[in-house]
Design brief:
This protein is an alpha/beta fold and about 240 residues long. About 45% of the residues lie in helices and about 20% in strands.
């Protein structure tokens, strides 16, 4: 399975890379992102993040990296683990700006640091984090294997990666309901509220193209992650993937 297979981009511009288009898309929707994210998921995304964070409880990580942090919701959820530091990175400065405001407003800015960075080429030393999280971000990577490899590089031995990502339900009636909701309702409301007609049409397209389930676990194992496993959420609408270094 190669990363160039069926590359899906937000705007399908011939000149721009997927990475550039993803950054542009999130810059465009950054001011409405938090509202839309919680509204379109009916608030379930918050429960998913809490469950993902609980997978790190026994590890007691003191330094956590949150990739594709956006406005920092996963980084905030990780504070339940009582870390010394959480670093949130993203390629969208617009999303980070909203996240920085959020951290200051909630008094988290002493622990949560927000930084512009490429998840496929992280500006951190080897083995410098106890744990890492990614929420709905890996399917936006331009080169999935490169991104996953660099994530593994910055984990310390025994460190853990927890990846939360959308998946495709397989059973009736969730499959049919989610299919209609993601392909019809989300693009319509997303366009109406965000004023970006492609951003929320890209969501179901990117989920459809993503190598989910055992395919994704196989990629993680091939790259060197150990004890790879996963947990289905809400009937398969989302999945938590985990792996150790």
């Amino acid at each position: 399975m190669t990363d160039n297979k069926s590359i899906v981009k937000p705007y399908n511009s011939g000149d721009a890379s997927k990475k550039e288009e993803v950054a542009e898309m999130f810059d465009n929707i950054s001011k409405r992102y938090d509202f839309l994210n919680h509204f379109l998921s009916l608030g379930i995304d918050k429960l998913w993040r809490r469950k993902a964070v609980r997978q790190l409880k026994d590890l007691r990580p003191k330094r956590i990296l949150d990739l594709a942090t956006g406005t920092g919701d996963f980084a905030i959820a990780a504070l339940k683990l009582n870390p010394d530091e959480v670093v949130g990175v993203d390629i969208s400065q617009g999303m980070l700006d909203m996240g920085i405001q959020k951290m200051k407003k909630r008094g988290h800015d002493k622990i949560v640091k927000m930084q512009l960075a490429d998840s496929e080429k992280l500006p951190f030393e080897d083995a410098s984090f106890d744990a890492l999280t990614v929420g709905f971000g890996v399917r936006n990577y331009e080169n999935l294997e490169k991104g996953l490899s660099d994530m593994l590089r910055i984990l310390r031995p025994g460190g853990k990666a927890v990846i939360l990502e959308f998946s495709k339900p397989k059973k009736f009636p969730i499959k049919q309901v989610f299919g209609f909701y993601s392909k019809r309702v989300i693009p319509f409301l997303g366009k109406l509220i965000s004023k970006d007609k492609r951003a929320y049409a890209y969501l179901p397209e990117s989920v459809e193209a993503f190598p989910e389930g055992t395919d994704f676990e196989t990629i993680m194992t091939k790259l060197g992650y150990k004890e790879v496993n996963s947990i289905l959420l809400s009937g398969g609408i989302a999945t938590i993937y985990m792996g150790l270094k």
